[in-house]
Amino acid sequence: MHVVVNAAMSADGKLSTREREPIAISGGTDFDRVDGLRADSDAVMVGVGTVLADDPSLTVDDPDRIAARRGRGKSPQPARVVADSRARTPPDARVLDDEAETYLLVGERTASEKVERLDRAGATVIATGQARVDLPAGLDALESRGIDRLMVEGGGELIFSLFDAGLVDELSVFVGPMVIGGRDAPTLADGDGFLEEFPDLELIGVERMDGGVLLQWDVA
Ligand SMILES: NC(=O)C1=CN([C@@H]2O[C@H](COP(=O)(O)OP(=O)(O)OC[C@H]3O[C@@H](n4cnc5c(N)ncnc54)[C@H](OP(=O)(O)O)[C@@H]3O)[C@@H](O)[C@H]2O)C=CC1
Ligand SMILES: Nc1nc(O)c(N)c(N[C@@H]2O[C@H](COP(=O)(O)O)[C@@H](O)[C@H]2O)n1
To answer: Residues 90, 65: contact at Cβ < 8 Å?
Structure first.
């Protein structure tokens, strides 16, 4: 599986405010690029923190891109994936609407009634890991269902865990022309942070965009 992480951060490295309100850091050009990245992916993944904060749809907007997917023999929309150890995704969340297939990666200790509720809401539930979703096993399970190219949109907790598990192949970050600040505001990679063996990145692209800059790296 090829894993691409994409996010937008402020000039000071924040994904959102300390109140975790959804905030547009990207401009129109970058949002269109993100739509294209989604269209080129078999699935788009977020952590449950992003679902609870943003209630995202994670779908492709551009009808031409949707038609092109159909032309390639793909589903009109990429699947959606939520890492959600305790099955906290609300049954009326937009990621559970009928626009696309949705996989919920939950922990093996999750109460069966919570799993059944999300199953009834239309999700395909995959249980792996104990206190937290086992990401390597979860991504293997997705690959066995035909997901070869996975785009991850955040947030910072999930992105850190994916780097920590050595699962990221590419990183794209739009750095927007704003300062958000706040020691408790989410950053690109939160979690416990690395003390050593920091992931090495090889810069493969720099582009001015929307008053900011798009940076692209391969993970060494
Ligand atoms: N600017 C941008 O590009 C983006 C901004 N955001 C912003 O980021 C914020 C949300 O980020 P954040 O709070 O970090 O949430 P995340 O979306 O990263 O979700 C984190 C949650 O995922 C669950 N999870 C399940 N398995 C794992 C695992 N193995 N490792 C890590 N997490 C796991 C955990 O909850 P549990 O233990 O219950 O499973 C964890 O609390 C919001 O403010 C949102 O607006 C989000 C995406 C993109
Ligand atoms: N690329 C990018 N730029 C920003 O400025 C953002 N705020 C985000 N947020 C991500 O996009 C999700 C919303 O997606 P929908 O439009 O609802 O499909 C949001 O949840 C973040 O993952 N991304």
So the answer is: no
User: In ligand 2, which atom is closest to the CA atom of 23?
Assistant: 7
CB contact set of 119 (below 8 Å; sequence gap of 6+): 125
**Predicted-assembly ipTM surpassing the 0.90 threshold:** yes
Q: pLDDT tens-digit profile of 90-119?
A: 999 999 999 999 999 999 999 999 999 999
pLDDT in tens, 171-190: 999 999 999 999 999 999 99
Distance 56 CA to ligand 2 centre (A): 7
Strand-pair partners of 168: none
**Helix, strand, coil shares of the chain as percentages rounded to 5?**
25, 25, 45
Structure tokens at 64: 């031409």
Domains of the chain by residue range: 2-219
**pTM of the full predicted structure?**
0.98
Tell me, which fold does domain 2-219 have in CATH? Answer: Dihydrofolate Reductase, subunit A (3.40.430)
